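Data deposition worksheet. Section B asks for the primary sequence of the deposited chain exactly as it was used as input, without tags or linkers unless they were present during the calculation. Section C holds the resulting structure in token form. Section D is free text for depositor observations; keep each observation to a single sentence. Incomplete worksheets are returned to the depositor.
Section A, Depositor: J.P.
Section B:
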Amino acid sequence: MRQSPMSNLKRQVAEKDREIAQLRDKLAKAEARDGSRFDLNRDSAEDIGRVIVGSIGESKARKIAKEIEEGLKAKRPTKSTEQKPAG
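Section C:
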């Protein structure tokens, strides 16, 4: 059975109302956390990166990226600490 244009629009509005309610709930839960804009354990790296870039200036974002890179390099084993193959 074909729906009238008005009933189709009403259905679309109801779907959008549900989506808005879900997003408002998600936002309220995020704000109820410690004020953080993201959750390091649950959010993707892409989402965290977008939040950081969208929330602070370019200079500070670049400094954060540099600190992350330096921290990762420091965690890598150096050649002198790696085990040498037996032989």
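Section D:
The chain has three helices and no strands.
The mean pLDDT is 87.
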